[in-house]
Amino acid sequence: MELALRPLRADEMPDYLARGQEWYARDMVAHAGMSEDAARTKAEHDWEQLLPDGLASPGQFLFALEDRSTGERVGDLWFAERGSDFGEQAAFIYSIEIFEEFRGRGLGRQAMLALEDEVRSRGLGRIALNVFGGNEIARSLYRSVGYAETAVFMSKEL
Fold first, then answer.
1. pTM score, two decimals?
2. Domain range list for the chain
3. Sign of the CA dihedral 80, 19, 143, 1?
4. What is the C-alpha to C-alpha distance for residues 138 and 130, in angstroms, rounded to an integer?
5. How far is CA 34 from CA 42, 51, 64, 77, 154, in A?
6. Distance (Å, rounded) from C-alpha 28 to C-alpha 130?
7. Element (H or E) spanning 32, and its range?
8. What is 3-144's CATH topology?
9. Partners of 83 in the β-ladder
10. What is the layout of strands, in order, in the sheet containing 127-129?
11. Beta-carbon contacts of residue 84 (< 8 Å; ≥ 6 apart)
12. Among 30, 62, 72, 87, which has the highest number of CB atoms less than 10 A from its own CB?
């Protein structure tokens, strides 16, 4: 299977928002120690702040990940163009998801490489992201395609 990026359509946006906010909240509970209520509230707030105009939100780019040969949607990817810690404009990945039934086939890696082509086509020379410390599958994927950790935040609940 070979992946292609295609802009997310307006009719796909409500499902994407609901699924994405749920995933984000679930990760904050599992990996950041937040309560379910606090995580849901933060997820709704963050997504409203970042996507105030949905697909038309400035600097935000949402894509469906599709099987190039069949057109079947196998996941989603969201990135923004924003300033980086390196003093330059960069792409920042907010969300990448391969749907559960398609995982384990190397599609996450393909998605990251397709994203590199998209980012280069926009004249950007860097991609950044944040990943929760307990998400070893994602961290392993990112390392395998050349990402390096630039900061590690730690905490201890007392």
1. 0.89
2. 3-144
3. negative
4. 10
5. 10, 23, 29, 24, 14
6. 12
7. helix 13-32
8. Aminopeptidase (3.40.630)
9. 89
10. 3-7, 60-67, 73-83, 89-98, 127-129
11. 90, 92, 126, 128
12. 62
- 96 falls in which pLDDT band (50, 70, 90)? very high
Q: Residue 37: count other Cβ atoms within 10 Å of its Cβ.
A: 10
13-32 helix and 36-50 helix, angle to the nearest 10 degrees? 130
Percent of all residues in the chain with a pLDDT value above 70, rounded to a whole number: 98
Q: Rounded to an integer, what is the distance from CA 55 to the centroid of its chain?
A: 15
- Which amino acid, 103? R
Here the tokens at position 157 are: 């609940």
In the block, residue with structure tokens 């961290």: 139
Note the residue count of the chain.
158
The letter for the amino acid at 86 is: F
For residue 101 the two structure tokens come to: 């039934």
In the prediction, which pLDDT does 71 show?
94
